[in-house]
Structures are given as structure tokens and as C-alpha cells.
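WP5 quarterly update. Target: Multidrug resistance-associated protein 1. Source organism: Oncorhynchus mykiss. Length: 1397 aa.
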Amino acid sequence: MLNELLCLSVICHLIPPPPQDWNRTWHVGNPDLTQCFQNTVLVWVPCLYLWVCAPIYFLYLKSHDRGYICMTHLNRAKTAVGFLLWIVCWADVFYSFWERSQHDSGASSSTQAPVNLVSPTMLGITMLLATLLTQYERLKGVQSSGVMLNFWLVAVLCATVTFRSKIIQAINEPLTVCVFRYTTFYIYYTLLLISLLLSALSDQPPLFSEASKDAVITGYKRPLEQKDLWCLNSEDRSQRVVPQLEKTLYSPKKAPRGERKEGVPVEESEILIMKTPQKTREPSLFWALCLTFGPYFLISSLYKIIQDILMFFVNDSSAPSWQGYFYTALLFVCTCFQTLILQKYFHVCFVTGMRLRTAIVGAVYRKALVISNAARRTSTVGEIVNLMSVDAQRFMDLITYINMIWSAPLQVILALYFLWQNLGPSVLAGVAVMVLMVPINGVIAMKTKTYQVAQMKSKDNRIKLMNEVLNGIKVLKLYAWELAFKDKVSAIRESELRVLKKAAYLGAISTFTWVCAPFLVALSTFTVYVMIDERNVLDAQKAFVSLALFNILRFPLNMLPMVISSMVQVGVLIRSGQQINRSNNLSTNQSIYSISIEDGVFSWCRNDAPTLKRLSVRIPDGSLVAVVGHVGSGKSSLLSALLGEMEKLEGSVSVKGSVAYVPQQAWIQNATLKDNIVFGQERKESWYHRVVEACALLPDLEILPAGDGTEIGEKGVNLSGGQKQRVSLARAVYCDCAVYLLDDPLSAVDAHVGKHIFEKVVGPQGVLKDRTRVLVTHGLSFLPQADLILVMVEGEITERGSYLELMARDGAFAEFLRTYANKEQEDDESGDICYLHHHHHQCAETSSLQFRTPALRSVKLSVFWEYMKAIGVVLSCVSIFLFFSHHFASLFSNYWLSLWTDDPVVNGTQPSREMRLGVYGALGASQGIAVFCYSISVSIGGILASRYLHQSMLYNVLRSPMSFFERTPSGNLVNRFSKETDTIDSIIPSIIKMFMGSMFNVVGSCVVILIATPLVAIIIPPLGILYFFVQRFYVASSRQLKRLESVSRSPVYTHFNETLLGASVIRAFGEQERFIRESDGRVDHNQKAYYPSIVANRWLAVRLEFVGNCIVMFAALFAVMARESLSPGIMGLSISYALQLTASLTWLVRMSSDLETNIVAVERVKEYEDTEKEADWRHDQSSLPPGWPTAGNIDIRGFGLRYREDQELAVRNITVAIHGGEKVGIVGRTGAGKSSLTLGLFRIIEACEGEIHIDGVNIATLGLHELRSRITIIPQDPVLFSGSLRMNLDPFDGYSDEEVWRALELSHLKSFVSGLPDKLNHECSEGGENLSLGQRQLVCLARALLRKTKILVLDEATAAVDLETDNLIQSTIRTQFDDCTVLTIAHRLNTIMDYTR
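C-alpha cells (predicted):
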């Protein structure tokens, strides 16, 4: 170090004096720096800064070209000033040369120091570099440069010291002044100030670039819209982020091949479902996340270290007067620098969190597309949606605080070190208290974890059940089962709330320890300090420096357990993510046959008994294969096995070429009809028209309001069953694949349409005649045209051969045919049957509703009032009072401490210290009690509110009419029940606690500062106004961004739900890539609204902390000014409160905006109160005779209904009288209004004209449940709910087991159910997927048999079953409902041949 100083001296002077003289700089009333230090260090620092940064900055600009900025006045000014600075520096250099030549010629006697040449030369070259850099920035499109701003700032600060020094020198030693050098320096200093000002201004945007928008200012002027948001940075987009995670997660594995890409000729390949025999190590989600996001995240750790060290730089205020001001300035600079570093740290953390969420959602989506059926059972739709919504959010939140794991211990160690310096060994007493607190907090964290797991389990179950209720809402309404399911959801909800309540008590204990820990530490330390030695006096410096350090300690000590519990929670999530992650993907192989199975044995789950046994089939190219068999014989399973959807236990399977699949239940996307058919392929108009014509869709296109551009609602709500099936078929045909797997596509269409489709599409003369077709069918008339027929019984192929071969063999198949063939002699002229008026309902604005714009107003006070009412007004007031008493006690205890430190010292001790200590302790105890009580009251209030809000939302949603569900995407509703409910459950109560806490903190701090230094009253109002404006500015934009973000979140889940339902279709068509792109696009669209909110938070924090730092500076400044009149105790109190004020202010705004943005959840949950509702479920005074309807007479008079106000009637002017016990068939073309008539009978849609009377009672006068529970329907789509089979038959538990078994026997399910291990308690999976479609249809028949009402409606109830089962059902209906009125909508005419009319 000495050598360096000597070198400096040599450069400055020929005879070396010291370069820095401390007597001149520090220990003096008017400090100054030596001439040598000014001419070397202060000149070289800015130069070094620029030369170090320039190469790195140059490379950065080279790789980040934003375009070209035209020359502007600003740029010209910057360049001109730069050249002038260069000229001034060179003038100094030339002057030095001139002086030297004068010396050499003997004209001057003074010797020249080398520094007079070296420094100006160096400065001149630096100024030239700065000018060139400014031009290079312009060429690369930089509008404002941080590097150059910092350079000019450092240069001005260094020059300011010299400037002051030169003025002092001119006043004190006028003879030593060199006029030329002084003149050039003042010009140089003026130009520097101009440069600093110019670099603070922003240039115009580059050519051809979008003008950058300031979201905060825009958001204040008017509500933000989607177009105001910035594009997402490329490194934050899904296509960059997700592959990084997948690469680390699955790097050892090969990706599955054989997926068809658009425009690529399809290679011959076959799907071979196989599991690799070697056991690979399971990919760890945790390590993958660490490796992917670790490197970027480490940057944040660096910022955190700097911030932690800075935190301890702000303590000392006893020195000469100018040093008081110097320390005040240093305090201000340190706090401002700390602010910038901390905000940069948070920015890095939040961006990492955002990428993490993108990666998790993307990875889960990709996994859901390849997940096997066994895995689908362990992880339900509810769990997966939860992992995507709530849990990915938890990951994001944790990232911000995870650095506390090492930062907290570091802060604690530093604070303890300074405390030891201050109070000596007494600190150990405080440490002991802290150490005791850690296990308490640890126990609380572990307990909280167990509660969280329990709550997550309940929540998953609740979301899963809600998902099913929303998917099967039509069935619930038809059967009047809403209340049973409302009770089921409420029961799960109650168990969830019980857990929440326990967690609330724990939370209160943890808040109690969090607030009391620092106080107990301070109390124990001060007690030991004053008790161990009489002469230990507690003065202001000791007390308040210690208090400031204890306050610093409070944060890490409380964050640590919270972070640990969050990590534990995320550990739980990683395990559930890991579970979803373990599933088998499909891989491929080759064969000469189009389809071949050798000795195949398949089951739906590895551990289940095989569903398909001993299968051996070889199908040559271009054949038409029909698969027939009874319900549940394994026909659909055979197709699933070919698609690779089942677990292969033995044998091999291969399918050559691309595959198209038409499932039994059509899967329709929420898109236009055209998009549903084209399904991501390239558009070929002529082929498209040919396909539409072949699939009998032309008549439907004429009816639809926008033709094939009509928007189809979610799950195809605005298409009839037959239309959905034909669209599904058209999609497959358009795809033009090698192999077609058709799972009974003709069941939902009427006979002549079925015939048309078979001839034009599937049959020997159809569009697909050269393709391999596997057709599962119950239609016997098509069998003679098949090349090969496979007869299936109980999962085995019992007979195979052509139609003629099988007939000649005279086996079971021939017997079956003889029984039923004559019944299938349909009338070809069935087209002459009198059709109902042909109309179709549509909800073309389904999609426009999905992306509803958010409400564009601020949160009304009424929303807060609603929430207060939900809590209970009395409880709310009690909570506020408890908050007040806690903060009052806290303030008073610190004031008491300041009085104690001002006690006079008598003979080296303070006389009344026991009394002081006792009161101090008592105040602390009262604080603790108040904290515990308010924590309990707020949490319990929150639980009461969330119970009330959830119950009313559930009731309101169930009371909504069917049209509401057709218009509202299920993603929106699921979002309300998952994310918004979670917000009300756990986020709002904690925000309210923090909001109240910071509000009282801010008020308290201001009061204390005002009492101590009344001069601050001049500063607080203007700063308060600035603070208020910043806060309003921010909240306006922040709230709007939050709304945009939550509105763009629903489509992510809606699309995800849709994908899960159609996963097998997407896989079969090889369209995974396109769906992944769509999902990524939606996630990016969502993050596009989230990213600006991160930036807005940083924008706010920097400005607010600046306001806080100003208050600290002024408090310190006025304290220094009034140091003679102030008592040290009050002064210490004032500054220790001022130091806390910054954090409290920032926190207050953050919490007030969080409260506004999160209370939106209450508003969104309440908005279903105002939507339209159905008629009452029951009337108080029911005038119905008991046992109504007794005869079953139906009298329809001039009946008409429409689906929406603005549409024409779907059914009009229908008048018909049906007598009790009549059997009536209703036929008509698809979309003719057959189902609409039944919807009118059940009042799913209310009549517009006319009325319906049953046994003389006008049904419009009845309560809906009174009507719907007395008549029965077997619907077109058989819907089952997850739960026991018994619950599916009788959710109200109104029938005995004998009655249930009797109903099962009559519906031909008894043998199947008694063969199940759990019999009636057999668990049905989500949507009843572990039963075949036919079996589900029979379960619906069993429901009808149980209820046994006088009127029975069959809505194409037997479309999905084979003829034999159809026959059994019909005979059951004839015998069991002999005296009942039966209305049947049918496509198969043999079903209604023997009906009355």
C-alpha cells in the first residue's frame, strides 16, 4: 500500500510529500483533500470506470442491435459537448508542454510535475472515447444509456470536490492561482454538468421500432388493455424456457418418435407399446429445476450479499458538526444504493419465478399429453389443474425468499457481532431467547406442513368434484340432484375449513412469537446488562443502536421458519409433480401388415386383471374390418390397445402408417366448426367440401348462423349429439391417414344419415375405400360389406371371418343375426316420416365470452363492505381495536425506553432502573396478548367469510340455468372455485393483517418523529403528497394488470381441460406439437400481463423507498441541527423509527395494492349473485297431490321455446295430447328439435309460448325439483360421477340395498356388478371412464328403474349399445314401465316399432 502511495507522490511532485493528509481531511472543522489526491485519484476514477466498461459494453451493443436512431438535436448536443471537453483537456496538455518549454529556456523557475501531463492526456482520450461511444449507441438504437449516465455522474462528483477545493484556495491563497488552469477547469466543470443533464434525457426510438410504452403512466390515464402490454422477452417465452427444463429432466431418455408433423410425408411406422426392461433412475424434478434456473438465480444471490452488508453501514451519529452532516449524507447515499441493489435482486427473483411457472405449466401440459391411463387414475384432472394453477404459483412465491436460507444466518451473525461490540456478553441472554424460539417456530412449521397436505388433499377432491359437477350439470338438473352434490361439495369444504381453522390457531401462535421475539430478546438483553453490573448504564447510544440491530434481527429470524415451511410445502408439490411425471410414453416399430397383434394381453393398469386376452389379428392394407359384440365385451378397448392407450402385458402390436381415430363420445374443441374439421392440417378447399358432403354436414351448415365459421362452445354444447359425431368423423376423414379406427360413429345419427355416411365414407365405395378401416358397430346392415368381422366376447375374439363364412359356420354370430336381422329391415323411405320443424340452437358468442374484458373500474368500497359483512361487523371492529392497542403498547414501550435512557446517572448507576425494567416488561406482555388476540380474530373472521362466500357461490352456480353453463367456459368456473377461493381462504386474511400492521407502523413512526423533531412537519406534507401520487399511480395500473392477468389465466386452464378430455384423439392424430404450441401461446399471453406487474412493483419500490430515505435523511438532519436542545433518548428513538419507516411505507403501499387486487376475488365470487337464476326449486306451500303424477297424461298446447332471447323459436306451435300409459316415439332428422322438446318438458329451457300440463297440473307453476324428481329421463350422454356405484344410482341414500340390486338385475348389470370385488361400493373413476359406454348407459337405466316414475323419457338412450342389449332394455321398459307413459327419441326405427304411435 505504501509503495502505491509513493508512486502517486512521485507523479504529483518531484519531491514526494504524502498524497493524503488526515489532519487536513478529517480531524478539522473545514475538511479538504490534498492537491495530489485531486489531480490523480479524482481524475483517474471516472477514466478507469469507462475504460473497464467500454469493451464489455461494446460487445453487448454489438449483439443487441435495436435498430438505428436518426441524428437528433439531443445527439448533436451530446457530440458537440463531448468534443468541447476533449478540446479543453488538450488545451491543458498543450499548456503543460508550453510551461515545460518555458522552464527549459529558463524563462520560468518552477518545475513541472508529471501529473500535469499525464492526467489531462488520460482525460482527453477518455472524453473522445465517451463521444465515440455515444455515437455507437445511436447506431445501435440505444435511447438512454445507464453506462454513460454513471460515467458522467462519477465525473461530476469527483470534479465537485476539486471545484470546492479550488474556490477555497482562491479565497485563502489568491497568489497561488494559475488563471489558465482555473479557467479551463471551470469550463470543464460546466460542460460536465451539461453532459450529465443531456445523458439523463431519452432519445427518440429507433427507426421501424414500436415506441416503448410506459405502462404505469398509460394505466393512470386510462384503463390498460391487452395492446398496451409489452411483448415478452424471447428468453422468458415458453419455447425457450420449457425445452431447457425438459432437457435437464429427461436428458438420459430418447424422445418418442413417430409423431406426424404437418407437411412431412408420413413414414411407415407402428406404435409399439412397450416398457424398457432396464430400470432407469427416475428423473428428479427438483434437480432439473435447480439446473435449469440455478445459474440465472445465482446473480440474485450476489445482489443479496451486497444488500445484507450495506444494511449494517447505517449506524453512528456522534462527532464534529460537519461530520454529523457528512454521516447524514452517507446514510442517505447508503440507503439509496441499498434500495437499488435490493430492487435489482427482487427483479431477478421474480423473473426467475415467472420462468419457473412457465416451465412447470409447459412441462405438465406436455406430460398430460403422453400420460398413460394408469397414471391418469392416480392423478386426477383436479390434481393436475391444481398443480398448474395454485402450485406453480407457490413455486413462484418461494423463489423470492429462498435466498433467506443463507442470507438470514448471515444477517443474524453480523447483527450479533455489532451487538457484542455494543453491549458485551449480555447479548448471550438475547441469543438464548432466539435459540429457544427456533425450535418453537420449527415445530409450528412442521405442524403447518401436515395441515397443508391435508388441506391440499381436500382442495384437490373439491376441485375434482366441482369439475365433474360442472361437466355433468345437465344430468344433475334433469335428475334434480343439485342438493345432493351441493352437500357433498360442502362436506369436503367443511373438512378443508376445519384444517384451515387449526392452521389459523397455529398461525396466531407463530405471529405471536414473530412479534414478541425481538421484544423478548431486547428485554432479556437489557435486563442482564443492567443487572450484572451496577455501573452498566443504559444510555441512548447503547439502547437505540441495539434496538435498530434487534429490528434488523427480527426479519431474518421470522423469515427463516416461513421459508423453511414454504420449502417443505414446495417439497410436497415436487412429489406430486414427480408422480404426474412418472408415466410411460409410446415408442414405435415396423411390420408388413397394416395392423397386427400377436398374442396380445392388455389391461388398463399394470396391476389390474387383463381386459383383453389372447388377441391375435392380422389386417392387410385397405380392408374394412367390423368389430361386433355385446356391451362391455372389449370393442373400444381393442381400439385403445391399437392406439397405445392401454398397458401391454404380453405379446406385440403394430400399426403401419398414420392413424385417425373417431372416439365413441365425440370430442369437440371450443373453436369454429371449420377449425374442428381441418384440425391443424393445411387447407384444401375441394377436399374439404367433399368431406363435408360425405359426412352429411351440408344441411347443418345451412342452419348454423355463420355456416362453418360458427363458433362451437366448450364440449360442443351448441351441437346435437349426431352433429358432434359427424364433425368428429369429418375431422378424421379430412386428415387423410393410412389407418382409421372408428368407434361406433354411426350410433348417434339417425338411420338414413347413418346409411348415407356408410356409403359415402366407410363402405367399399366410400371416400376411404383404399384405407384400412376398423369399425366398431352395432348396425347389422353394414356387416355384409365388411372384409372381415371380429366377434368379441369378454375381451376375447371368439369368431372371425367374412359375413358369408360366419353365416356358413352357423355359430353364435349367425344365431344372433337371425334373431335381430329381420328387425333391422328399416324402411328406406324413413325420410317420409313427419319431421319436427328443423332448427338448431347456437351460442356463437361462446368464445367471445371466454376472453371477457376485465371490469374497467376501481374496486368499489361496497366490495370491502361485503367482505366485512361476511366476517361479521362486530368481529371486524374488535380486530381493529386489538390492532390499535398492540401498536399503542409498542410505541409506549419504546417511548418508555427513551425516558429510561435519559435518567440521570447518580454515582455511576441509574437509581430507578428496577421500576423502569418492570414497566418495560409489562408493556411487552400486553403487546403479546393483543397480537395473539388480533391474529386469532382476523384468521377466524377470514374463515367465516370464506365459508359464507363459497357456500353462496356454490348455491348461486347450481341455481343458474343451463344457458349460463353453455355460455360460461368451465375454465372460468373452475378458476373461481380454485384460485379465487384459495385467495379468499389464505391470502386475504394475511394481507389484512399485514396491511393493518404497516398502517399503524407508519402512523406511529410519523408521530414519534414529529414529537422528537417538530421541524420534520415541514417535510412530511410534501413527501406525503408525493407518496400519495406515486401510490395512486401505481395502484391504478397494478389493479388493471392483475385483472388482465387473471382474465388471461382462465383460457390456459380451459384449453388444458379440453386437452385432457381429448388426449387420446390428439395423440391418435399426432397433433401434440400443435396443441403444445397453442398452450405455450396461451401461457405466454398470460405471462405478458404478469411481467409488467413485476416491473411496476420495482418502479413503485424504488420511488417509495426514495421517499422513505428522504424522511430518514431529514429526521437525521434536523436532529443534527437541533443536537444541543434534544435529549439523546428522544433523538435515538426518532432515528430508530425513521429507519423503520422506509420499509413500513413500501410495505403499506404494497399491501394496499395487494388488498385491492386480491379483494377482486371477493368481487368475482360475488358476481354470480347477479346472474340469471332458474325458477325456485321448491315452493313453500306445495299444492301437488301426493303421488303426482298418478296417471301420466301429458297435454302439450301450442308449445314453443327458444334458446336465447335474440333467436327465433327452436320448437314452435306443438300441440299434442298423450294419454297415461301410452308409448310414443319421437323421430326426426338430427337437429330437428327432438331433444329440445324434452328440455321443455323438464323446464331446462322455459317455454316462450303455450304450456304443458301433466295430469292437469300446469308444470310452469311447480318448483323445478318438484317437477324433475317426479319424471325420469335416460339421457343421450350417460354421465357418471367419481364415487361409489351406489352413490351414482342413489345419491340421496333414499333406497335400500335390496331395491338397488333389484334395479341392477332388471337393467342386466347384476352379473357384472356382483363380479366386481367391491360390489356396490365399486369406485367409478372420473366421468365413469372405467365402465364402457354401454355399461354407463345401463347404469342410467338402473337409475330410472329405481325412481320408477309415471313418465319416462328416453333420449336416444340405446344408441351406444348393441342390438341384443337394446332389445333387453326395450323389453325391460315394456315390462317394468308397462303402466307408465314412455316418450322415446330414437334413430333406430325397430326400437319404436311396437309403440302406440
